[in-house]
Amino acid sequence: MNLLDNEYAYVKRYRQIVDVMIRHGFGYLVERFGLRPVRSLRERLFGPRLKPEHLLAISEAERLRHALEELGVTFIKFGQILSTRHDLVPDEFIKELATLQDNVPPFGYDEAKKLVEKEFGKKLDEIFLSFDPEPIAAASIGQVHRARLLDGEEVAVKVMRPGVEKQVDTDLAIMMSLARFAEKHIKESKFFNPVGFVDEFSRIIRHEIDYVHEAKNAERFYNNFEGSKTVKIPKTYWKYITRHVLTQEYYDGIKITDIAQIEASGLDKRKITIDIANAYLKMIFEDGYYHADPHPGNILVTREGIIVFLDFGMAGYVDPELRECLVNIVIAIQRNDVAFLIEALTEMGLIVDGGDSPMFRIKLEELINQYYSMTMKFIDPVRFLRDLIDILIKSRGKVPSNLMLLSKTLVIRDEIARKIDPEHNFAELVEPYVKKMIDERVSATYILKETARTIWDFARLVKALPRRVNNILVKAEKGTMKFELEHRGFEALVEELDVTSNRVSFSLIISALIVGSSIIITTGMSPRIFGVPLLGIFGFFLAGVLGFGLVISILRSGKW
Predict the structure, then answer these.
(1) Boundary residue ending a domain (142, 170, 198)
(2) How far apart are CA 302 and CA 413, in angstroms?
(3) Is 326 found in the same domain as 425?
(4) Are residues 192 and 48 in the same domain?
(5) What are phi and psi of 300, to 5 degrees?
(6) Is the dihedral of CA 11, 13, 17, 22 positive or negative?
(7) d(CA 4, CA 38)
(8) What is the pLDDT of residues 119-165, one digit of tens each?
(9) Is the domain of 366 the same as that of 435?
(10) Regarding predicted confidence, which is higher, 133 or 375?
(11) What is the maximum span of the chain, computed from C-alpha positions, in angstroms?
């Protein structure tokens, strides 16, 4: 695709986005981002296809969901990521975005065949013994076909939808341009760090449209659950994998939320929820690597009652430091120790001011008192984590994306479990894992290990200290050392000074026009109207218009 084609695709997509947003009642956002000029000709002439009364019938959150679904893969994934960010998005939008549907009509068999043959450089019958023309699942990124390898083994082949990568690239470029505009021109957006958020989202979605990356995730999960009698991960066939084609072991099973089929198969619903919960506890507390997209279409249960996880495009990490801090939080609850809880939250980077706000401490005390003296089996970790995040958000705390993703994953898992078994108690299953980690904390081995690490860190600091001090002195001597001062709370003052200086400049220009026009009139220069120089009259007229505009501006501001 040449440069001209790229520019055309970019403008065309911008126009589609603007038209969809206006049609779903988000014209005010189009105005805020200065996008009115890119509206389509049809929208300019006839207006949005939906009339205002249609928009009033549904909530703003629901309209946003419909708009994102209509805009396709990139915006659907963006909405799904937004649904994990309670620190950025109101609850009513979170609930609606969590229901975003990624089901789209499948593309044709001929296109799928052509893509597979292009990827492997062979005819389809040279790669597979059979390849079902009808897909068994379809989404915005790709679709899955049932097939058989030449050795007769049954597999599931995921084929990427044609044009997805170009579409994502175009959408990401547009999103980044809007994020930069917001960061520069929309003051309140600075709290959300739009450029950083879009940058992080770009990393996530580019991984999702790279089937090699998904295959690596799948293989890691496969190795972590190898030998498990309750959970299976499809085997990955590297010989039949490219960036656009993914081949894995085929599993026939029941969708995890198909309660009628589960009951008809005589499966134990309570055991199913326990097996899924234990799988996630293993992933979080033992592996530090978990399946981060547990919606119902990605979890099956076989006729034998074995849990099968599918779709590994999104995975989350729980590093040792995060696990340690989560245990510290539990210990703080058991001790009813707010100071220790604040210390644990500070270590996690969730608060940066040491929790000095009295209201913040009161909220944390209320949270701890809800659970104090309760045994672990009565402390719902999902609810506790959500409550803690809500307190942090309301107190302007910093909530990292990995903790948000973990919270969202646990919430979805909990919702699925309660649909299958309303009596499901996740806390009861968490208890032995947390108890094991707390017991490890007080063991002699752990204490010796931590003491050795502290001594080693201190030794490294002492060893490096003279060199670092010397570097500082050398820079100071050469004059290359720079100090940066950060000011806060002056934004309103700076803005007020900007307005004032603009008005003063405007007034000086008007005064100059009046004085200049007066001098011109005294010269009697030509051309003249009624004996008065035309240029002088024009100068007075222009000064009058500018002066009138300045007066209106001052009156509107209410500061006069």
Answers:
(1) 198
(2) 18
(3) yes
(4) yes
(5) -120, 160
(6) positive
(7) 18
(8) 999 999 999 999 999 999 888 889 999 999 999 999 999 999 998 99
(9) yes
(10) 133
(11) 106
The H-or-E segment that residue 479 falls in is: none
Final residue of a domain: which of 444, 479, 505? 444
Confidence of residue 114 (pLDDT cuts 50, 70, 90): very high
CA-based torsion, 160, 163, 168, 171: positive or negative: negative
For the record, the structure tokens of 525 come out as: 């220069």
Is 510 contained in some domain? yes
Residue 471, in any domain of the structure: no
105 near 138, Cβ under 8 Å? Answer: yes
Q: Tell me, yes or no, whether 60 and 193 share the same domain.
A: yes
- What are the φ and ψ backbone dihedral angles of 526, each rounded to 5 degrees? -95, 160
Q: Is residue 133 part of a domain?
A: no
Compute the average pLDDT of residues 449-459.
74
From the list 167, 210, 185, the residue with the least C-alpha distance to 78 is 167
Is the same domain home to 392 and 502? no
The radius of gyration of the chain's CA atoms, rounded to the nearest angstrom, is 31
Sign, CA dihedral 43-47-52-57, equals: negative
Answer whether 64's CB lies under 8 Å from 26's CB.
Answer: yes
The answer to whether residue 531 scores a pLDDT higher than 80 is no
Q: Which of 75, 73, 312 is nearest to 212 (CA)?
A: 312
List the one residue out of 348, 396, 341, 331 whose CA is nearest residue 364: 341
* Calpha distance 426→302 (Å, rounded): 22
Question: What pTM did the predictor assign?
Answer: 0.72
Round to whole Å and give the CA distance between 94 and 384: 18
254 sits in which H/E element = strand 254-255
Counting the structural domains of the chain, the total is 3
Q: What is the Cβ-side half-sphere exposure of residue 87, based on CA atoms within 13 angstroms?
A: 22
One-letter amino acid at 411 equals V
Q: Is 40 helix (H, G, I), strand (E, B) or coil?
A: coil
Give the Cα separation of 142 and 463 in Å (integer): 55
Q: Is residue 249 scored above 90 in pLDDT? A: yes
Within-domain flag for 11: yes
Residues 51 and 189 in one domain: yes
Contact 279/231 with Cβ under 8 angstroms? Answer: yes
The residue among 163, 169, 170 whose CA lies nearest residue 115 is: 163
Q: Which of 228, 245, 33 is nearest to 121 (CA)?
A: 245
**398 and 520 inside one domain:** no
Residues whose CB is less than 8 angstroms from the CB of residue 539 and which lie 6 or more positions away in sequence, other chains included: 513, 514, 516, 517, 520
- Report the distance separating Cα 104 and Cα 141, nearest Å: 9
Let me know: does 178 contact 171? Beta carbons within 8 Å.
Answer: no
DSSP 405-472: HHHHHHHHHHHHHHHH-TT--HHHHHHHHHHHHHHHHTSHHHHHHHHHHHHHHHHHHHHHHHHHHHHH
CA distance linking residue 60 with residue 188, whole number of Å: 20
**Average pLDDT rounded to a whole number, residues 344-364:** 72
Range of 509's domain?
491-557
> d(Cα 429, Cα 280) in Å, to the nearest integer?
11
Same domain, 510 and 431: no
Element (H, E) at 255: strand 254-255
